[in-house]
Every structure is written in C-alpha cells, then in structure tokens.
Amino acid sequence: MASGYGMNGGPSRCFPFWQEVLACYVVNSNEEDSSGKKKCAPILEDYYECLHHKKEAARVQALQAAYRKAEAEGGYKTNPPTAGQIRNLGILGKEEDSRAVLTSK
C-alpha cells in the first residue's frame, strides 16, 4: 500500500501514485489553508483507482454485457470481421477498415 513495499519486497504498484498525491498536498496546502487540496482530487482519484480498480471493473462489466448482448442477438456470427480488420482498428490510415468493422453490426 502506501508504505512503498510490495508483496515481494520491491516498490508496490501504487506507490508512485501515492508519491504524486503527497507531492500535490505539499505544494497546494499548508497548515492555515487546506483549500488547495481540491486541486489534488484527480491525482487522489488515480491513486484510488490503482488500489481498487473500480473504473476498470465497471468498464469490463460494460464490455462483457455488450458482448453478451451482441452474441444473444447473433451479432457478429452472420458476418464476422476478419483478423486483419480487427488488427487495423484504430490505426492511422486504416479508417476504412475501422468503419467497415464498426458499421457491420
């Protein structure tokens, strides 16, 4: 956790995020005025995501639900995309392949 030591003795996976949180608090707040902590909210959110993976889990559940829905409707079984089309998704200069795969539903 925030101690900096992982399960195998090295730095933990979230320790760099914790260091960013502490650095943000040191720079943006002091004993008299703690209103600067609001600037650290996005960094703290990243640290919590590293610890708990809630956003990642929600995204995986949404993707699985969409996949199951498409599978139940017979989505890609009638005209599945080729491996080459899937590999080209999101590559610059291959927009026509991406468009063909995404609109073939």
UniProtKB/TrEMBL annotation:
Annotated membrane topology: Peripheral membrane protein
Pfam family, one: Ndufs5
Disulfide bonding pattern of the chain: C14-C50, C24-C40
Domain of life, source organism: Eukaryota
Keyword rRNA-binding recorded: no
UniProt keyword terms in alphabetical order: Disulfide bond, Electron transport, Membrane, Mitochondrion, Mitochondrion inner membrane, Respiratory chain, Transport
GO BP terms: mitochondrial respiratory chain complex I assembly
Subcellular location: Mitochondrion inner membrane; Mitochondrion intermembrane space
One GO location term (cellular component): mitochondrial intermembrane space
Subunit structure: Mammalian complex I is composed of 45 different subunits. This is a component of the iron-sulfur (IP) fragment of the enzyme.
Protein function: Accessory subunit of the mitochondrial membrane respiratory chain NADH dehydrogenase (Complex I), that is believed not to be involved in catalysis. Complex I functions in the transfer of electrons from NADH to the respiratory chain. The immediate electron acceptor for the enzyme is believed to be ubiquinone.
Family per record: Belongs to the complex I NDUFS5 subunit family.
Name by which UniProt lists this protein: NADH dehydrogenase [ubiquinone] iron-sulfur protein 5
Taxonomic placement: Eukaryota, Fungi, Dikarya, Ascomycota, Pezizomycotina
